[in-house]
Amino acid sequence: MTGASAPVPTAGVAMTALGVALIRARETARPDRLYADPLAEVFLSAARPGFDAGRWAGLERLAEQYFEGRTLAVEVVDEHVRESIAAGCRQVVLLGAGLDTRAFRLDLPPDIAFFEVDLPELFDFKEPVLGAHRAHPVCSRRIVAADLCGDWERVLLERGFRADVPTAWVDEGVLGYVPRAASYTVVETATRLSAPGSRFGIGRFQVDAAAPQYRALRELVLEVPEGRPVNGLGPDGESWFAAHGWRTTFRAWDELIAPYGRPSGLRGDPAVGHVVAVRE
Ligand SMILES: C[S@@+](CC[C@H](N)C(=O)[O-])C[C@H]1O[C@@H](n2cnc3c(N)ncnc32)[C@H](O)[C@@H]1O
């Protein structure tokens, strides 16, 4: 199998995963790259023939507009995963994993159970491409093909997730697509499944719904140029964690990315950054 026959997500929310793959491929091609994700280009090569030229160009334009901040965020999440494992987490759960390849590209211990949760149509594309490329994960990777608005917990447990083992949870751009009430159900479920010492990484940022790139994203993916869906945890996410048995620590975005010497992609707002919640 070449992978070219994998059904390409050319519409809907699963398509956003290709936008982030474009960003990681672009980073990988830089001589001063922050990380290397060679599989990103493999996914793109398999996906490109499924798109008409105009739609693909629209996706590329969007990836370019979001590049500066989003590529740094990949590195910030890489660090969150490394720190969580160094602190004793033996499981990782990527919520809305998309075309992420941390289970292949990070230097993770082989005994780490690495769960990727995403929609079935995403894995219908991802798995054949990985298989055709004979990609081998460095740890115990397990896919959880399920909707986060549904019973993803059951599928996660069926795949061997253990609620008595500390877990590193990652939301890297998925809850922004999940309605607010369902987003809180997701974190309630994660809280119930989190042994002491588990860690949850949460982005704290402001979305400027009027910004041209945000409008372009809505048009391309959601096909709704007007109006802003009420998704994600919103401004109360961090305090929700603090009130539900998690100790939270905030680091400002500008401080987090200063060592990389790159433009931040954000406006230098000291309230924007990354929160790590540790289960007590
Ligand atoms: C912007 S992409 C981010 C992907 C990945 N975290 C990354 O950074 O490369 C959002 C991902 O969330 C997934 N997603 C959106 N809504 C979802 C839902 N209700 N259940 C599961 N996955 C969902 C999409 O399929 C997509 O892969």
TrEMBL record:
Gene Ontology BP terms? methylation
Q: Which InterPro entries match?
A: Ppm1/Ppm2/Tcmp, SAM-dependent_MTases_sf, SAM_mthyl_Trfase_ML2640-like
Q: Does the keyword Phosphoprotein apply?
A: no
The record's section on Pfam families has: LCM (PF04072)
Coiled-coil annotation: which residues?
none
Task: Name the UniProt key words of this record, in alphabetical order.
Answer: Methyltransferase, S-adenosyl-L-methionine, Transferase
- Give the superkingdom in one word: Bacteria
Q: Name one GO molecular function term.
A: methyltransferase activity
Q: Recorded E.C. number(s)?
A: 2.1.1.-
Q: Report if keyword Ligase is assigned.
A: no
User: Would you identify the family this protein belongs to, as annotated?
Assistant: Belongs to the UPF0677 family.
Q: Which NCBIfam families match?
A: mthyl_TIGR00027
PANTHER family given for it?
S-ADENOSYL-L-METHIONINE-DEPENDENT METHYLTRANSFERASE YKTD-RELATED (PTHR43619), S-ADENOSYL-L-METHIONINE-DEPENDENT METHYLTRANSFERASES SUPERFAMILY PROTEIN (PTHR43619:SF2)
UniProt function note: Exhibits S-adenosyl-L-methionine-dependent methyltransferase activity.
Query: What protein name is recorded for this chain?
Result: S-adenosyl-L-methionine-dependent methyltransferase
What organism, scientifically named, is this protein from? Nocardia flavorosea
